[in-house]
Design a protein that fits this description.
The structure is a single chain. The chain is mostly helical. It is built from nine helices and two strands; from the N terminus they run αααααααβααβ. It has one domain. Helix content is 76%, strand content 3%. It has a two-stranded antiparallel ribbon with strand order 1-2. The termini are far apart.
Length: 192
């Protein structure tokens, strides 16, 4: 990695530490906390332990999905989520190849997008508002999904340019969530 890519990676890690502070005591706090921790772990694993981080991404991706569930629902469905989590962890560490790992990550982030869109639709149905907080989050997850699809299907995108574009976008999203919360009035459009 060249100097600008390393600097961008560190800048991203620093910026993504901030959203959990802004989102404290909201439904999305755990989600943003996991994102912040994952960037720090990524840097630690690469620089200090010289280890591949992809298997830990599986656990982090599953944790992101769990963080988007209501606690009461998790308690009601603990066997389902425990079983699903166990399967994900076992598959992730079975060393079935990088293609399977990317496929599993793609699946998990697709499920995360559906969960965010479900939360968005419920907000529209219950409160008759469009909350752009959810749409930006779904779009962010979509860019993460595209990164995995690029590895899975080799979309013939120049890797370094793609890295700069997606990481730059993710920095903007990090700043967005450092500025706005789910209950920010500026993000809500009343339908009626």
């Amino acid at each position: 990695m060249n100097f600008s890519a390393i600097a961008l990676t560190y800048l991203s890690a620093i910026i993504w530490i901030l959203p959990p502070l802004k989102q404290y005591k909201t439904f999305f706090f755990k989600y943003f906390l996991i994102l912040a921790i994952s960037d720090i772990l990524d840097i630690l694993f690469l620089n200090f332990f010289k280890m591949e981080f992809s298997y830990l991404y599986i656990l982090i991706s599953f944790s992101l999905f769990i963080a988007l569930q209501k606690e009461q629902y998790l308690k009601q469905k603990k066997i389902l989520f425990g079983g699903f989590g166990g399967v994900v962890v076992i598959l992730g560490f079975m060393k079935l190849g990088s293609g399977f790992t990317i496929f599993l990550l793609t699946f998990l982030h697709l499920v995360i997008i559906f969960r965010i869109l479900y939360l968005f639709v419920m907000e529209v149905a219950q409160k008759q508002v469009i909350n752009f907080f959810y749409l930006v989050l779904a779009f962010y997850e979509f860019t993460v999904l595209l990164k995995f699809l690029n590895f899975l299907f080799e979309l013939k995108v120049e890797a370094q340019t793609y890295f700069y574009i997606t990481t730059g976008f993710e920095l903007l999203v990090g700043i967005f969530y450092t500025t706005f919360r789910e209950d920010s009035r500026k993000l809500v459009y009343q339908l009626k």
